[in-house]
Amino acid sequence: MKHPSTLVIKIGSNVLTQADGLPDLGRMEHLVGQIMQLLKAGNKLVLVSSGAVAFGRQAVTIPEKLNPISKRQIWAATGQVHLIEAYQRLFQIQGQSVAQILVTKEDFRDRKHFLNMKNCMEGLMQQNILPIVNENDTVTITELMFTDNDELASLTAAMVNADSLILLSNVDGIFTGNPADPDSKLIEWVSSDTKDLSEYISAAKSSFGRGGMLTKFSTAKKSADLGINVIIANGKRDGVLEEYLSGKLACTHFEPKKKKQAPKKWLAHGAQYYKGEVFINEGAKASLTSAVIRSLLPVGVTRIEGEFSKGDILLIRDEKGIKIGLGRAEYSSKSAVEKLGQKNQKALIHYDYLYLFDHD
Question: At a CB cut-off of 8 Å and minimum separation 6, what does 39 contact?
Fold first, then answer.
């Protein structure tokens, strides 16, 4: 018997928003029907959905003079209710139960909190309840926001150990030029050793979303490097998920590398969450990057910056300041400073909680 696939599907703002900035309920209904086909085929699924701001814009009128952050918070807070209500109504018609999960970046920083969220989502899926995830825009401010919901979807895919991440945008994928240019060709396959496609990708952001194709590429590549199949496809296209299911979808597919262990998937996204920095000598660097997996011992640590507690994420740098990787602290910065450079001490970072950057 084939093990059911776990999928994370992200629906972007431009997919659920009409040209006038109001919600596209027809498109939403069509995608709900498509998602039901995936569920009926035996897949487990988490939906990451944008669109709250569009629903909020429809629900309430706000004075133009109000500052942009307040506007977004008000539209997100009011719109989130209407967004989830619309999903609940559409899925209920199909006999499918849904649950709402609102998250912030802080939720991914702490390992225990992260695992609580993971257990919640997995529990919902086991009970055949569809988790619908969105950023809690109401409580987040600019510096704590996700780059966009692609980043949130990528973190969620790592969290639930997804087999595939499907990013639905308003274009078929990544093109060799402007998608509107008839001479541009769709890049259907991005191999695991591809480092950069920025020569093809415009840095411009989309009309209603916060991100653009450049952030979509880097997010997709990071997920693929963790062993997750990633698809960028056109959510405005009728039958998009049906075509995905049949293997006939025109899209950009990112080749996954070998699957990483769950803790390493969590750490891979921790570059913005680290609490302290650990500088190591050449001996420690050679040890960590060798073929044999090893922990980081205090004897190889030359300097520590920042204050951290046990369980916090640490950034590892070499003597030149080059970033080597990320790890989870086994004890506090106070204890680490006391053990600095000493032999026969407990590892500061255990190899099970060590993620090294790819420098090749």
Answer: 45, 96, 128, 130
